[in-house]
Amino acid sequence: MTELFGFWWEWLPTLLSGLQLSLAVTAVALLFGIPLGLILALGVQSKRAVWHVLSLFIIETGRGAPALILLQFTYFGLPSAGIALSSFVSASLALAWCTGAYTSEIIRAGLDAVPHGQKEAAAAIGLTDWDALYFVILPLALRVSVPPLFGFAILMLQASSLCFAIALPELVSQAYVIGSNTFQYMQILLLAGLLYAVICIPATIAVAALEARLGRHTD
Amino acid sequence: MMLEILQSIASGIPLSIALTIVAFVSGAVLGMPLCGMRASNAQPVRVLSGALVLTLRSIPPIVWLFFIFFGLGADFIQISPFEAAALGLGLITAANMAEIYRGALTAIHPGQWEAAAALNLPPLYRFVDVIGPQLFRIALPSGATYAIGLLKDTAIASTIGVPEIAFEAYHTSQRTFHSLDVYAVAGLFYILISLSLAALTRWADVKLRARVAR
Amino acid sequence: MSDSTAIRRGEPLLRLAAVHKRFGTHEVLSGIDLRVSAGEVVAIIGPSGSGKSTLLRCINQLEPPTEGRVLLGGVAVEAGQELSRAELTQLRRSVGMVFQSFNLFPHLTVLRNVSLAQERVIGRSRKEADAVSMQLLSRVGLADKAQQYPGRCSGGQQQRIAIARALALDPKLMLFDEPTSALDPELGLEVLAVMRELAENGMTMIVVTHEMHFAESVSDRVIVMADGRIIEEGPSAEVMRNPKTERAKRFLQAVNDR
């Protein structure tokens, strides 16, 4: 047992630096992906055919293709079209694409949950469509969307582990490299798993509590 | 050239589908006792199963697959990439299906349990004849959505060398240097399989509803 | 704020000409003709599904009519005409609307509910808008609720706040869509009192209502609708006591028997 802890202690800093990168790429993906999700949610409802089709295309590809394929598409694929990106940028791009596609559905559900009377009242007092969206509809929609968005953020941290496949030295890549150098795969993967669990388990419990609390106060 | 790319990626389709089916079926079955434990009257059982579900869901699939394939596989047991992937994804599926069953259970009107009990049906038959069929129908849409997600997760098996779609795509791209087309095609294959799976579910759902309506 | 088209009491304010509204193949309004003068209070009664609410929504274009024409304060809107943003804003400014289910914005304070449109639609400063809002809230007797959220107010209070919100842009015409139907009778009374005060001060009002007493005592004119048409119309006391058409008789009989 002490041997295991000694091994962990030795490699923990390396894994933590990997975890830091995992968190960074997740944060960037969410930072760009969630606004993209909002734009896509509005785009799908647009009466302009171009916006509608374009939004639908981004959503369906982002949700339909595995995140791993999106990552490889941006990292290995785009260079053959003359666009070479670093593994961090391609990872951010692919995961933001994925985030936009999934969160557009979450946000759309929130928009749909806003009672029709609120939209009518906003129109009746003369607000423009944009003002109605900004001051009335979005704040109400986000109340519904925030818990599932947090839930999605947890999934995204997990999905960032796929960046292993494009040589981004995040948590799993670090663990894998240590494993192949020391042949102690099991021990190091256990520690990597623990690090994910330490973040994701409390976060999952917190999101469930938030959901329950907001669910009580729906008016 | 394009034809060659198509062919070589398509050669991964059977294993992607097979892995999805094996993981889903074993997970759907294992999920039942797990869901039962989650609803148990004994607190230790409830807490333990809850912790198991949380842990399985909180650690990324790739970590589970590596742990099983490189960790267990190196030191303890002989395990093929496919078996490791099926085991890992099956366990994760079990945790998720247990949650889906649990959601479906709460959606069944309490009157149904009371009615089944009032009829003096033995507990097993209460489940098999009254609750089970309703549970299945309620869980079907979320189960199908999960299965489609699982299909996409099988791409992760490429990292431990299961020659499915993503694996074939990677090697085709290394060989042909047409990476953009290769990954676009691979993505398209996943989308097409997902769409067929979704269509199949809708068909099954309509059938099931029709049977109830009759 | 300039109001070049100030309208004096008794002058024509609203005119609907042959207004039809169809949802798909279902015709909800089948040729409505209606004139309302400034300062007039018109009650619209009739069985549910007769098109009363849709009629109100056609006036402020929440539901654009399928056919016909709506003239409000000298501005005509033909069915099918695409209104510019400015025209629509002008129209919505001059028409206030109060809904059956209040539709206050639950995430904004009472004050903000009343102020929002003043700032965004007519460009009042926050300070000015808040001052006007406080006056309006005092007028409906709820100045003390300004900093609360609507969810903390009773239904009657919410509806009075909704009236204050609708008054905030100085409308020429107020539309009320069954304003007391969602309220307990006692809470309904406080709303009716506010509406009575508005009527006495010369506000032009069209009120869809089931409150027969209100229709008779406050409104100048009663309109009875059935199946998307106006089947009877006239001075309140006359229509309520001696309806001429069989259909109107039946409806009023049924209401009185309750």
Task: Write up this protein.
The complex is a heterotrimer of chains A (219), B (214) and C (258). With 219 residues, chain A is mainly α. Chain A is built from eight helices and no strands. Chain A has helices spanning 2-45, 49-64, 67-80, 87-113, 116-124, 129-159, 171-182, 185-216. In chain A, helix 3 packs across helix 4 (87-113) and helix 7 (171-182) runs antiparallel to helix 8. The mean pLDDT of chain A is 92. With 214 residues, chain B is mainly α. Chain B has a single domain (2-213), classed as MetI-like (MetI-like fold). Helix content of chain B is 84%, strand content 0%. Chain C is α/β, with parallel strands linked by helices. In chain C, strands 6-7-8-3-9-10 form a six-stranded mixed β-sheet, sandwiched between helices. A four-stranded antiparallel β-sheet of chain C has the order 2-1-4-5, with helices on one face. Chain C is built from nine helices and ten strands. The model of chain C is unreliable at 1-5 (pLDDT under 50). The longest helix of chain C has 16 residues, at 185-200. The interface between A and B is large, with 42 and 41 residues.
Name the helicity range of chain C. 25-40%
Number of domains of chain A: 1
How does the overall form of chain C come out from the CA principal axes? globular
In N-to-C order, the SSE pattern of chain A is: HHHHHHHH
Determine the N-to-C terminus distance of chain A.
54 Å
Name of the top-level CATH class of chain A: Mainly Alpha
Elements of chain C, N to C (H/E): EEEHEEHEHHHEHEHEEHH
Number of strands of chain C: 10
* Unreliable sequence segments of chain C: 1-5
Question: Can you name the CATH architecture of chain A?
Answer: Orthogonal Bundle
Mean pLDDT of chain C: 91
Assess the beta-strand content of chain C as a share of residues: 25-35%
| CATH fold field value of chain A | MetI-like fold
Helix count of chain A equals: 8
Radius of gyration of chain C from CA coordinates: 18 Å
Helix content of chain A: over 70%
Task: Report the portion of residues of chain A in β strands.
Answer: under 5%
Biggest protein-protein contact in the assembly: A-B, 42 and 41 residues
This entry's quaternary arrangement is heterotrimer
Structural class, from helix and strand content of chain A?
mainly alpha
Biggest sheet strand line-up of chain C: 6-7-8-3-9-10
Question: Which SSEs are present, and which pair or pack?
Answer:
The complex is a heterotrimer of chains A (219), B (214) and C (258).
Chain A: H1 2-45, H2 49-64, H3 67-80, H4 87-113, H5 116-124, H6 129-159, H7 171-182, H8 185-216
Helix pairs in contact in A: 1-2, 1-4, 1-6, 1-7, 1-8, 2-4, 3-4, 4-6, 5-6, 6-8, 7-8
Chain B: H1 2-10, H2 13-38, H3 43-58, H4 61-75, H5 81-107, H6 110-118, H7 123-153, H8 165-176, H9 179-213
Helix pairs in contact in B: 1-8, 1-9, 2-3, 2-5, 3-5, 4-5, 5-7, 6-7, 7-9, 8-9
Chain C: E1 12-23, E2 26-37, E3 41-45, H1 52-59, E4 67-72, E5 75-78, H2 85-94, E6 95-98, H3 110-122, H4 126-139, H5 155-167, E7 173-177, H6 185-200, E8 204-208, H7 212-217, E9 221-226, E10 229-235, H8 236-241, H9 246-257
Parallel strand pairs in C: 3-8, 3-9, 6-7, 7-8
Antiparallel strand pairs in C: 1-2, 1-4, 4-5, 9-10
